[in-house]
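Reply to dn_fold:

You asked what the input looked like. This is it:
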Amino acid sequence: MQTAAGHAFLADCPTRLAVEIISDKWAVLVVFGLSRQARRHGELVDLIGGVSRKVLTQTLRRLQQYGLVERHAEAPRHVLYSLTELGRTLVEPIEVLTTWARDYGGAIADFQEAAHESSPSANAGATSEPTVRHP
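and this is what came back:
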């Protein structure tokens, strides 16, 4: 994976930073949640199922440090978060990944289920974590 920016296996390669950002599921969901409009912290908590307020705060701060999200304090206790111009550049790649997941997520779940059923431990009656299947 040699790119004009550098070699992806080098510790200081920008590719690794990009992968680090998009591999954080909460970061991707926050960016996508802010892709259409600025939102308050509570709105994001309601929009993003399963994220705690603490983790959302940490994620927003990290995205601010990357220059992807801006925090706008309009009045005490009225803070809006929005994407920066740089943050907006991530919306299209996230939409592409979302489309891929929608198109192929079922095939991955089917493969996992078949692999689990054909594994020796599954045939021996051993218990393991159930495969999570998303629509």
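The radius of gyration is 19 Å.
Hope that clears it up.
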